[in-house]
């Protein structure tokens, strides 16, 4: 009598229940420039078109600032960081966990909208960030799908800023997932529509943000050059050196 | 004088060891990793497990190490098991053990629970006089509910997974008290355990996590040798070997290959 009862129990338990394995999301096809391009730009700064190049660079900076891109990235990545921390999952691609874990974490954010509403409204658009973990190691490459996101960013002592993002963001972590702005170190390729509540523009922009410096890449005929905003104006770096343009003063020169 | 002292020491040793003349028919059986039972109405308090004989063929117990793991790790796994002897003859026996373990992985963000049910079939047979072979077939059913904090369900980076293990132990009973043991264990297969959970850090944000843990290595094994001393009320096993350390009862391999201690100590009332 004992034997058949035990065999029945064995069979029931052996059947098991619940999902066998997870299916990790597949990243969208996104072209990311090599990380090294920001430190060793491959292109030549067009010396005969410094002002025009600097003006184009300024426009890229303006689109990123209007869209509140950096603030949005901090919001998404800090939510991710908090969840990874609480779940005992790795937060730094350079420091894998002991456990052999495969995982995905998806941050779904309903954008706050361009009004004073305090409850989420799907009509204000969404952001969806996906991060993958393989064999206990956080992958450096993340991605975000922005769907007509009407972003609202509170600014201390000032009116709230309204940004707009629609498109795909390919993100490469240069350090750990940040918990605040000061820890943000990323390279991003954004392809879509960026802007503010006043205007939105189709754009494809590559930029690196290592707090507090924002740099953008610009393709030139023989590669890419890197630009940043300094105290003297737009600073552009290429294989042929570093050049600065002060668009307000209308002056450009080499350093 | 020296010769007299030598004989006295030998006599004392023989009396402690129980004498070679009284052999297999008067032994205190080892019940760990064998089909033997603790005995009707008997209580065993051991470093590895507590066991109480409800009847001669049914006992209930709990594995000590899983409770104590919380001292050195975030894992705290209350557990309970039943062992039933299905068949018992003079020279062979078959038993089955069913256990249940629970680990709480809940944190501030999400709920998470891990359930593990090891089911073990053990057959013991006297292949030669004094030489017993104990074979073990084990299946560990594991299910995760929610996500939570994986640190609370992993030991040394290893989490319980669905797995099947084989065990084999040879026991040579030199005297009533002294036995030599040679034991091996091998994880034949394993399947990942899936954790899924959702957290809401603020009204506008939802974070979904899905994760699966796999043993590393996938097929841990170990081989140990030991000396067992089993008096009527006290038992001691001490030895060592090589491979991965399997947490007794939970059958979780928690170390990479290296030296593996083998030991047990119990008091039986």
Secondary structure tally: strands of chain B: 18
The whole-angstrom Rg of chain A is: 23 Å
Shape of chain A: globular
Order of helices and strands of chain A: HHHEEEEEEEEEEEE
- In percent, how helical is the residue content of chain B? under 10%
Low-confidence stretches of chain A: 4-17
**Oligomeric state as shown:** heterodimer
Q: Which range does the strand content of chain B fall in?
A: over 45%
Which terms would index this structure?
heterodimer; A: 255 residues; alpha+beta; twelve-stranded antiparallel sheet; B: 269 residues; mainly beta; twelve-stranded antiparallel barrel; two-stranded antiparallel ribbon; 2 helices; elongated
Structure, explained:
The complex is a heterodimer of chains A (255) and B (269). Chain A has 255 residues and is α+β, with helices and mostly antiparallel strands. In chain A, strands 1, 2, 3, 4, 5, 6, 7, 8, 9, 10, 11 and 12 form a twelve-stranded antiparallel beta sheet that branches. The termini of chain A are far apart. Chain B starts with a helix and ends with a strand. Chain B is mainly beta. In chain B, the strands form four sheets. Chain B has a twelve-stranded antiparallel β-barrel with strand order 1-2-3-4-5-6-7-10-11-14-15-18. At the A-B interface, helix 1, helix 3 and strand 1 of A face strand 4, strand 6, strand 7, strand 9 and strand 12 of B. Strand 1 of chain A pairs antiparallel with strand 13 of chain B, so a sheet runs across the interface.
């Amino acid at each position: 009598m004992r034997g058949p009862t035990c065999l029945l129990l064995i069979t029931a338990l052996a059947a098991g229940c619940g999902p066998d394995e997870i299916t990790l999301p597949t990243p969208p096809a996104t072209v990311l420039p090599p990380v090294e391009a920001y430190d060793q730009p491959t292109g030549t700064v067009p010396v005969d078109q410094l002002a025009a190049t600097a003006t184009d660079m300024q426009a890229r900076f303006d689109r990123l600032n209007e869209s509140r891109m950096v603030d949005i990235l901090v919001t998404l990545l800090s939510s991710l960081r908090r969840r990874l921390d609480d779940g005992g999952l790795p937060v730094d691609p350079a420091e894998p966990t002991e456990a052999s874990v495969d995982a995905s974490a998806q941050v779904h954010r309903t954008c706050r909208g361009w009004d004073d509403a305090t409850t989420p409204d799907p009509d204000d658009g969404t952001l969806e960030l996906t991060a993958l973990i393989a064999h206990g190691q956080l992958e450096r490459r993340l991605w975000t799908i922005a769907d007509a996101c009407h972003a609202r960013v509170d600014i201390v002592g000032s009116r709230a800023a309204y940004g707009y993002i629609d498109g795909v963001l390919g993100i490469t972590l240069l350090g750990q997932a940040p918990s605040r702005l000061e820890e943000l170190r990323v390279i991003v390729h954004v392809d879509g529509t960026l802007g503010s509540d006043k205007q939105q523009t189709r754009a494809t922009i590559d930029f690196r943000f290592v707090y507090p410096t924002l740099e953008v890449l610009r393709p030139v005929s023989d590669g890419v050059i890197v630009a940043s905003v300094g105290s003297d104006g737009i600073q552009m770096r290429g294989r042929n050196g570093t050049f600065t343009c002060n668009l307000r003063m209308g002056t450009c020169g080499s350093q | 004088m020296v010769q007299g002292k030598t004989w006295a020491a030998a006599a004392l040793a023989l009396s402690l060891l129980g004498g070679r003349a009284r052999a297999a028919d008067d032994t205190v059986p080892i019940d760990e990793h064998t089909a033997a039972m603790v005995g009707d109405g008997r209580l065993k308090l051991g470093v590895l497990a507590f066991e109480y004989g409800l009847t001669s063929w049914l006992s209930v117990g709990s594995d000590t190490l899983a409770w104590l793991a919380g001292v050195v790790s975030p894992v705290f796994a209350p557990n309970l098991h039943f062992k039933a002897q299905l068949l018992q003859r003079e020279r062979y026996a078959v038993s089955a053990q069913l256990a249940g373990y629970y680990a709480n992985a809940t944190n501030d963000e999400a709920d998470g629970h891990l359930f593990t049910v090891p089911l073990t079939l053990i057959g013991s047979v006297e292949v030669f006089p004094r030489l017993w072979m104990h074979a073990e077939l084990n299946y560990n059913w594991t299910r995760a509910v929610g996500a939570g904090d994986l640190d609370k369900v992993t030991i040394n980076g290893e989490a319980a997974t669905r797995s099947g293990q084989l065990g084999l132990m040879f026991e040579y009973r030199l005297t009533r008290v002294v036995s030599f043991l040679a034991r091996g264990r091998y994880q034949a297969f394993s399947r990942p355990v899936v954790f899924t959970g959702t957290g809401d850090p603020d009204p506008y944000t939802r974070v979904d996590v899905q994760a699966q843990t796999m043993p590393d290595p996938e097929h841990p094994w170990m081989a140990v040798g030991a000396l067992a001393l089993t008096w009527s009320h006290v038992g001691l096993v001490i030895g060592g070997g090589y491979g991965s350390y399997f947490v007794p009862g939970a059958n979780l391999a928690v170390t990479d290959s290296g030296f593996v201690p083998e030991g047990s100590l119990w008091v039986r009332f």
